[in-house]
Amino acid sequence: MTETGQYNFAYLDEQTKRMIRRALLKALAIPGYQVPFASREMPMPYGWGTGGVQVSAACLTPDDTFKVIDQGADDTTNAVSIRKFFETTAGVAVTEHTDAASVIQTRHRIPEQDLTEGQILVYQVPIPEPLRFLEPRETETRKMHSLEEYGLMHVKLYEDIARHGHIATAYAYPVKVEGRYVMDPSPIPKFDNPKMEMAAIQLFGAGREQRIYAVPPYCQVVSLDFEDHPFDPSKADHPCALCGADHTYLDEVIMDDAGGRMFVCSDTDYCASRRAQGHLGTEGVPFKEDVA
Amino acid sequence: MTPLLKVRDVAKYYGGRIGCTDVAFDLYPGEVMGIVGESGSGKSTLLNCLAGHLDPDSGEVLFDTRTEGLKDTVTMSEPERRMLSRTDWAFVHQNARDGLRMGVSAGGNVGERLMAVGARHYGDIRSQAIDWLGRVEIDEDRVDDRPSAFSGGMQQRLQIARNLVTGPRLVFMDEPTGGLDVSVQARLLDLLRGLVRQMGLSAIIVTHDLAVVRLLADRLMVMKSGRVVETGLTDQVLDDPQHAYTQLLVSSVLQV
Questions:
Q1: Mutation target among B80, B84, B115, B133 for the A interface, most CBs of A within 10 A
Q2: Is A107 helix (H, G, I), strand (E, B) or coil?
């Protein structure tokens, strides 16, 4: 028996996938609403993307091309292990190129390159409830969602300004979807928030918390703010040291113990494709296909 | 004149035990009513039924809403009731910790109700919060401190500011001075009396402290074993108690 033959396609059994697909359809029908689902034990620890993996498993078909990123990078532990997991259990093609992928599972980033219709972006979500740290009772937060009582979300932003002088929430920045549900966009940097109004389908899976939610294509996604403190999708004020891009989200890399640092694109595929096109930053070297 | 609150035959049972029963009264705008009685007499049960925290087993609680006039708050929809409790009603808990968000700064606590009804301008929210902190005698420079850094009396005053900021018409108070020492109590009562008169608030105050009702309440209701045993003007009830239990209550007050 081949390695793939030992598993049902994409690891989960068909009944489980059916259950997840029903939750996904409901989530797509009510943008931003958290649909409970019977999350399964997955062969990885909670916090490593058990929710995202289940959603990906329910979406994948044998013809799909799969890409996994972790903080924008294709080559980090989390991304590599999840990619190998589906290579083994589903035998689907995998890629590192954003435009070649039909299903992209992501942790903490949206790819820099605009996604197109027909692509699916699957987020790994640790805590789906945006109101959780302000209101610990699940019964109460559910009621607040159903009655659209979202004043509390602004209390958090108020506290930010009172303490730091500006809205210091830099990731998991709360958004309102289609003027109705307030949603936690998973811990993506707020730089990515404006990109959520996109052509691709966005699915969010939280394994431990057993919730699935979704943003259908071209939905309105508004980041919450105050009139006198408008939303600001900030980023580090540098160009990428490798590809010279000044419009991408950057990682700060500490180079030595004397304060040396370098800013590079967090989206490795985007950075590599720019270098392949001949863009070069201050510390970049010309791109060669065989050098990773 | 239409009463602000009209209560008819409200009853609440805990299984076979009586929480409160046969309670009926009218509260007119600008009037402050005190409810006194011993522990377990049903005062808090009644107050929670009136404020929508408990569902009474029978009876009507009619509130004079701004748009639709008298409306039964027991049967109205939950969004409507929660809207009332954010705007026209206020609830001051005995323990300030129950009514405050301890992890949020004083300014945020006062601003929460404003943001809940749609305020989205940080500068306005903050200046209103500072204004209200001033009215309850909390210094402006404490606006970014958390309530956990406040004394008990300050926490209670902060809770009052947080409740009154949206200009409610009816305030429910459950032992507002409980657990405070006498000098802080006196200051708080003075403040409350000023605010109630100044804003023309109606209030229902539950307490076992007769001095509190003497100072604040226009009318008094004495409860025992879940029933109202005596009602009347405060001075009349306290100076000339008719019911045996009221007589006991009045004569039990310690003299210094």
A1: B115
A2: strand
Phi/psi zone of residue A224: left (φ > 0), alpha (ψ -120 to 50 degrees), beta?
beta
Q: What positions of A carry a catalytic annotation?
A: 32, 240, 243, 265, 271
Span B6-27, pLDDT tens digits: 999 999 999 989 999 999 999 9
What is the nearest CA distance from A35 to chain B, expressed in angstroms?
A: 22
Q: Which residues of B touch A161 (CB under 8 A)?
A: 122
Q: How far apart are CA B190 and CA B63, in angstroms?
A: 28
Partner residue facing A147 (CB), from B79, B111, B120:
B79
Give the SS3 label for residue A286. coil
Instruction: Give the predicted TM-score (pTM) of the model.
Output: 0.87
A24-41 pLDDT per residue, tens? 999 999 999 999 999 999
Give ipTM to 2 decimals: 0.86
Query: Concatenated DSSP letters for B86-125?
Result: HTTEEEE-SSHHHHS-TTS-HHHHHHHHHHHTT---HHHH
**Contact by Cβ (8 Å): A113, A200:** no
Number of neighbours of residue A234 by Cβ within 10 angstroms: 13
For an interface test with B, give the residue of A159, A176, A224 to mutate (most B CBs within 10 A): A159
List the one residue out of A80, A180, A182, A93 whose CA is nearest residue A130: A182
What 8-state DSSP symbol labels residue A278? Answer: T
**Would you call B120 and A227 a contact, using CB atoms and an 8 Å cutoff?**
yes
Size of interface A-B (CB pairs under 8 A): 54
